[in-house]
Specification:
alpha+beta; 8-stranded antiparallel beta barrel; 5 helices; globular; inorganic triphosphate phosphatase activity; CYTH-like_dom_sf; metal ion binding
Length: 217
């Protein structure tokens, strides 16, 4: 298991290009933009969400990655939680990877849960890696949207426009120091709501709309 420590910041889409020209990023190791498609799974009753668990499959080019994230905390945009990743041969979940020692005790076994796709996140990511104040940090600019298919012809969406600073090694305080430097180039605001939380919010809105329509029938 790895403990994911990242600082999530909100940024206006129009400011992204300006931020990418910051001197720290100009001298960092970078990567061309890439498209990421993520499908999140849960039960219709959102049992995983209630247990603060996120389970997704990411398509990144020809690569498929299954990720499990467990209960953590978020303070002033700093997110810390357990994370496991596995490479897959297809886009389908492999529940056999979710062994009992990593699966939250409050949930029944994953193969006994009726897991369904509940929403997707689709975004373009630009990446840089740099060393800053004794820390190795991954810098990501994400632009796209969260999408929930309501199943009745409607789709709800929520825009993604974020800067993520992920700590690879070193002191967590370096994330805040780097954010302060990058904010010289563009306005940044702490983001305490993850992409997954926003997707669950859309799914709940879809479910509520369906219940209201049945009630009016």
């Amino acid at each position: 298991m790895a403990t994911e420590t990242e600082l999530k910041l909100l940024i206006e889409p129009a400011a992204m290009e300006r931020l990418s020209r910051h001197s720290l990023l100009c001298h960092a190791t970078g990567q061309a933009a890439r498209l990421l498609h993520n499908t999140y799974y849960d039960t219709a009753a959102l049992d995983l969400a209630r247990a603060k668990v996120a389970l997704r499959v990411r398509r990144q080019g020809e690569r498929f990655i299954q990720t499990l994230k467990t209960r953590g905390q978020s303070i002033d945009g700093l997110h810390q939680r357990g994370e496991w990743e596995w490479d897959l041969t297809s886009e389908h979940l492999d529940l056999s990877l979710l062994e009992a020692d990593i699966w939250p005790a409050e949930l029944i076994a994953p193969d006994q849960l009726a897991l369904i796709p509940v929403f997707t996140t689709d975004f373009t990511r630009r990446l840089w890696w740099l060393t800053f104040e004794g820390a190795e940090i991954e810098v990501a600019l994400d632009l796209g949207e969260v999408v929930c298919d309501c199943g009745d012809g409607r789709h709800l969406t929520d825009p993604i426009s974020e800067l993520e600073l992920e700590l690879k090694s070193g002191p967590a305080d370096a994330l805040f120091a780097l954010a302060h430097r990058l904010a010289e180039q563009a306005e940044l605001q702490p983001g305490d709501i993850s992409k997954a939380q926003r997707g669950y919010r859309l799914f709940s809105q879809c479910s509520q709309h369906s219940m209201d329509c049945r009630g009016d029938a």
